[in-house]
Amino acid sequence: MPRPTCSQCCRPLAYCLCALVSRLDSRTRVLILQHPSEAGHALNTARLAALGLENAELRIGEHFADLADLLADPGYDARLLFPGDEAELPSQQRAEQRPLLLVVPDGTWRKARKLLYCNPLLEHLPRLTLPEGLESRYRLRKAPKVGALSTLEAITETLNRLEAPRRFDALLRPFEALIDGQIAAMGEEVFQRNHG
Questions:
Q1: Is residue 93 within 8 Å of residue 21, measured between CB atoms?
Q2: What is the pLDDT of residues 24-70, one digit of tens each?
Q3: Which end of the chain is more exposed for a tag (fewer CB within 10 A), N or C?
Q4: Which residues form the DTW domain (predicted)?
């Protein structure tokens, strides 16, 4: 018999993170396109981002038939958060500029690239990327490359830059509690041996 889970954070009820989730409003609208293979992942940081932001939406799939409608919102300028040759660093948005629709593919690098391939409209969006050298708090996973962040960390860092001086670090509270809980469950000795 499956364990009862929270309908919001999708964690087992005994490990529900909802009390740690801050509902933050943002000028930037965030659209997270999650590859289906990530949806059941124990450390689903995209779900935590969507729960923590009032102006965010999480879509799960490989192909999004209504993507053109989502990107055509006249109140927003769409940007893809994904590295590329012409990608720019996020910088503070001025009040007179239209707010951004930040489109964030969620999955392994391979799966995120597949989302772009399956949804060609994404390839044509101007891109934002984060600077090299950022350090992930995701202490349980070996990053495929230096500076790789979880989806939640990347969204938090991007919003901190776009909407400065406002900060969105409160989004990371359930993420940090989740990681601390995983480390406690495996024991400090096992954690140090495998991840320390």
A1: no
A2: 999 999 999 999 999 877 678 999 999 999 999 999 999 999 999 99
A3: N
A4: 2-187
Residue type, 167: R
- Domains plus CATH for the chain? 22-195 (3.40.1280)
Structure token pair of residue 55? 């102006």
- CB burial of 59-92 (b: ≥16 within 10 Å; e: otherwise) equals ebebebeebeebbeeeebebbbbbeeeebeebee
pTM of the model: 0.89
d(CA 172, CA 154): 11
Q: Tell me, what's the pLDDT at 147?
A: 59
DSSP state of 97: S
3 token code pair: 């364990």
Asked if pLDDT for residue 146 goes beyond 70, the answer is no
User: CA–CA separation, 175 vs 17, rounded Å?
Assistant: 9
